[in-house]
Amino acid sequence: MQLQSAVSLKPFNTFGVDVQAQLFAEAHNDDDVRAALAYCAEHSLPLMVIGGGSNLLLTGDVKALVLRMASRGIRIVREDCLEAIVEAEAGEPWHPFVQTCLELGLCGLENLSLIPGTVGAAPMQNIGAYGVEIKDVFHSLTGLDRQTGELREFSLEECAFGYRDSLFKHETGRWLILRVRFVLSRVARLHLDYGPVRQRLDALGIQQPTPLDVSKAICAIRSEKLPDPAELGNAGSFFKNPLIPAELAARLKVSYPGLVGYPQADGQVKLAAGWLIEQAGWKGYREGDAGVHRLQSLVLVNYGRATGAELLALAQRIQADIVERFGVTLEMEPNLY
Ligand code: FAD
Ligand code: NAP
């Protein structure tokens, strides 16, 4: 493991925020991870683990050893004629992993195409898109307890996955995810009834789509709608969609007949946070280099030199405005440091 000091984290977070890490290293295997932990223990230094940096907001220099997971490897650990359990190392980039599975004829991840980041970070917030979350195809993962150095296997139930949520998000800084296993099917069970997926396939004249067709359609939709972090800094959706009691949703609907809400199995209603932000007039707003994307109001963007603190201040102003107008609290999705 090679340690570097005073490293700019600009290339390592998709917001493109320019802060420095006191120390920086890449972990290519479990030994590198253990070496980093030992170094931090010896020098009383915090350890911060990152993957692709696509769900981070860095608000200042990081006084820690920043360890970027760069471990690679994809393998089938068990299979039969119906399904396979596929294991991937934490540092595997997510979208190429999805493509590899599809090429192997293994289905289940197609709706999660083109999500940035790494396999190891995916369980952190139970990544989801177009009606599928990783919990739907999750088998198990291997975590390293940073406090004791022990390895632990987590089953689906033990991860406590929820909407953009998991045990790992709550026990911040305890678990380092080393590798994740997914149970994928050789028989396609497609989820097309979410957003514009089916319309896009229809428009392409595809009547009986394959999982690869679904993946391609979702890549096309996402590319049109979402800013590419390589061109415009962002961390995807900045706020989670709020879950509110059905009575509050019904009251809001009287004042705002266009309110976009989705009833949940538990009786709550999930509101589209993007709709609330757009109604409040923030879509396309810009203050210095921090702004709200012109097409997708859930996405905060960095036009170049915005600092993490400026992006955070903008997010807080939006939160305060949404509470005042709608009585609804928006929770931030990216991890703040
Ligand atoms: P990072 O941002 O590097 O880290 C995120 C958090 O996980 C940090 O707290 C970090 O400490 C921790 N972490 C990282 N790796 C590990 C590990 N191995 N062990 C323990 N902790 C770890 N998310 C969705 O859910 N759905 C989407 O559709 C979606 N679309 C996006 C579109 C765009 C354009 C962007 C920029 C982001 C999008 N995201 C989406 C958010 C983001 O891509 C995901 O949350 C992704 O899983 C983050 O992965 P990462 O490797 O970049 O994590
Ligand atoms: P969209 O299709 O414009 O829909 C707006 C919101 O309505 C979404 O946030 C989605 O909630 C919800 N929604 C749409 N159809 C629904 C249905 N049939 N049932 C329940 N809820 C429904 O959304 P978008 O912004 O273009 O994003 C498309 C998908 O990619 C969404 O699933 C979104 O979560 C995901 N995405 C996530 C990020 C991120 O950073 N987290 C970034 C970009 C896209 P959900 O968000 O709960 O799905």
* DSSP summary, beta strand count: 20
The amount of beta strand, in percent, is: 25-35%
Order of helices and strands: EEHEEEEEHEEEEHEHHEEHEEHEEEHE
Helix content: 25-40%
Low-confidence stretches: none
Strand count, sense and barrel status of the largest sheet are: 5 strands, antiparallel
Write down the overall geometry: globular
Which strands sit side by side, in order, in the main sheet? 6-7-12-10-11
- The first-to-last residue Cα distance is 24 Å
Which small molecules are bound? Answer: flavin-adenine dinucleotide, NADP nicotinamide-adenine-dinucleotide phosphate
Class by SSE composition: alpha+beta
Q: Count the helices. How many?
A: 8
* Gyration radius, in Å: 20 Å
Q: What is the typical, i.e. mean, pLDDT?
A: 97
Structure, explained:
A 5-stranded antiparallel β-sheet has the order 6-7-12-10-11, with no helix packed on it. It has a 4-stranded mixed β-sheet with strand order 1-2-5-3, covered by helices on one side. It is of the alpha+beta class and 337 residues long. The model has no long low-confidence stretch (mean pLDDT 97). It contains 8 helices and 20 strands. The longest helix has 19 residues, at 308-326. The chain binds flavin-adenine dinucleotide and NADP nicotinamide-adenine-dinucleotide phosphate. NADP nicotinamide-adenine-dinucleotide phosphate (NAP) binds at residues 128-130, 194-195, 225-226, 236-237, 241, 262, 272, 274, 296, 298, 333.
